[in-house]
From TrEMBL:
This is Proton glutamate symport protein. It is found in: Cell membrane. GO terms for cellular component: plasma membrane. The lineage of its organism: Bacteria, Bacillati, Bacillota, Bacilli, Bacillales. It comes from Priestia aryabhattai (Bacillus aryabhattai). One of its GO terms (molecular function) is symporter activity.
Length: 419
């Protein structure tokens, strides 16, 4: 008799369904938050605990073991250029879709339930006070350990790459350092496997709290927006990212199947961080060099948020339509340019999508308080855009590996089919 396989994806999906049922049955019951929120927070904290050690150790081993300053600089320029092109595509697609389907027409903003967005307003005001120069200066840390404490990924990557280049430059004397971080990397990936055992419980708790807080009814008044965002994200996944995958020599559906556990986990938790270590591990198994994976994927988490910017473009035009504001071509071009800048400058800020939208709406004359109208369903849309962000960053590592002549599509396809 064949043994039934109850894998991680099945366990996570089961947790997801049970969480939805608990949220529906005990809708608006404070006991759900009291009992389940700590479980969800515990899982997210476990993940955040291991992300930074994995990024640092993988970068040191990858860059020190295989790279020179010239090679890293070349890879960095290509990576940022690629991210900027794909991000621009996502914003333009979002603007076009919102103009074609007009999701905000006929929506009564005054009769809808609104959520508190004061925390995002305060964060947005702090970020808007920074100039472009200050934003770039922030990448260079004055205290590396403070950057670790604050989880400032760009600053961490900047220092770690310089440190790794220094280790590579001292030759034989640097080998013990590389061996140490190689050991740390392997140990942390073992910790990841331990943490993943409680992932279904974390998913169950996080989804249960979300559904209990907002309920399924909150989707009805904003159903058109939610459906349009999902369809736009699916279009971007299959057409844009699917086309890029084909160029790289792989099938996007094979990639989905290979990453099914990670996609489901990212969707359930609305967090790309929860799967960063496993994605890096799977990319290396496909044949992507460790040096490229450990460099491209963490940077992508702050610079390549395709799903987020596509959603932000649709949401900004949705609110303009709700308020009856007819945006000119110049205003819409301004929206595209502002999103291109703000989505990068605020990548490490909590509540990124809302903060970016707050910073953007003022430039096109849309009242910022309109965001309180869509805050109740933001989590539902956040789940989908997290998946797109994840696929985009995974594909970026494959594209960069191929551009460096270090990726074999046939081997990658065989690994994906076997995985």
């Amino acid at each position: 008799m064949k043994k039934i396989r109850f894998g991680l994806a099945t366990q996570i999906f089961t947790g997801l369904i049970l969480g939805v049922l608990v949220g529906v049955i005990w809708f608006n019951d404070p006991r759900v938050v009291t009992y389940l929120q700590p479980l969800g927070d515990l899982f997210l904290r476990l993940i955040k605990m291991i992300v930074i050690p994995i990024v640092i150790s993988s970068l040191v081993v990858g860059v020190a073991g295989a790279g020179s300053g010239k090679q890293v600089g070349k890879l960095g320029v290509k990576t940022i250029l690629y991210f900027e092109i794909i991000t621009t595509f996502a914003i333009v697609i979002g603007v076009l879709i919102a103009n074609i389907f007009h999701p905000g027409q006929g929506v009564d903003i005054h009769s809808a339930q609104k959520s508190d967005i004061s925390q995002y307003v305060e964060t947005s005001e702090q970020q808007e006070g920074k100039s472009v120069a200050e934003t770039f200066l922030h990448i260079v840390p004055t205290n590396f350990f403070q950057s670790i404490v604050e989880g400032d990924m760009l600053a961490i990557i900047f220092f770690t790459v310089l440190f790794a280049l220094g280790v590579a430059a001292i030759g034989e004397r640097g080998k013990p350092v590389v061996q140490f971080f190689d050991g740390v990397s392997h140990a942390m990936f073992h910790v990841v496997n331990l943490v993943m055992k409680v992932a279904p419980i974390g998913v169950f708790a996080l989804i249960g709290v979300t559904v209990s807080k907002f309920g399924l009814d909150s989707l009805l008044s904003l159903g058109k927006l939610v459906i349009l965002v999902y369809l736009a994200l699916i279009f971007f996944l299959l057409v844009v990212l699917g086309g890029i995958a084909k160029w790289a020599g792989i099938n996007i559906f094979h990639l989905f199947r290979y990453m099914k556990d990670e996609l489901l986990l990212a969707y359930s938790t609305s967090s790309s961080e929860t799967v960063l270590p496993r994605i890096m591990e799977k990319l290396e198994k496909m044949g992507c060099p460790k040096a490229i994976v450990s460099f491209v994927v963490p940077i992508g988490y702050t610079f390549n948020l395709d799903g987020s910017v596509l959603y932000q473009a649709i949401a900004a035009l949705f609110l303009a339509q709700v308020y009856g504001i007819d945006l000119t071509i110049v205003q819409q071009l301004t929206l595209i340019l502002v999103l291109m800048v703000t989505s990068k400058g605020m990548a490490a800020v909590p509540g990124t999508s809302f903060v970016v939208l707050l910073a953007t709406l003022g430039t096109i004359g849309v009242p910022a308080e309109g965001l309180a109208f869509i805050a109740g369903v933001d989590r539902i849309m956040d789940m989908a855009r997290t998946v797109v962000n994840l696929v985009g960053n995974t594909l970026a590592a494959i594209v960069m590996s191929k551009s460096e002549g270090k990726f074999d599509p046939k081997k990658g396809t065989e690994v994906m089919k076997a995985g």
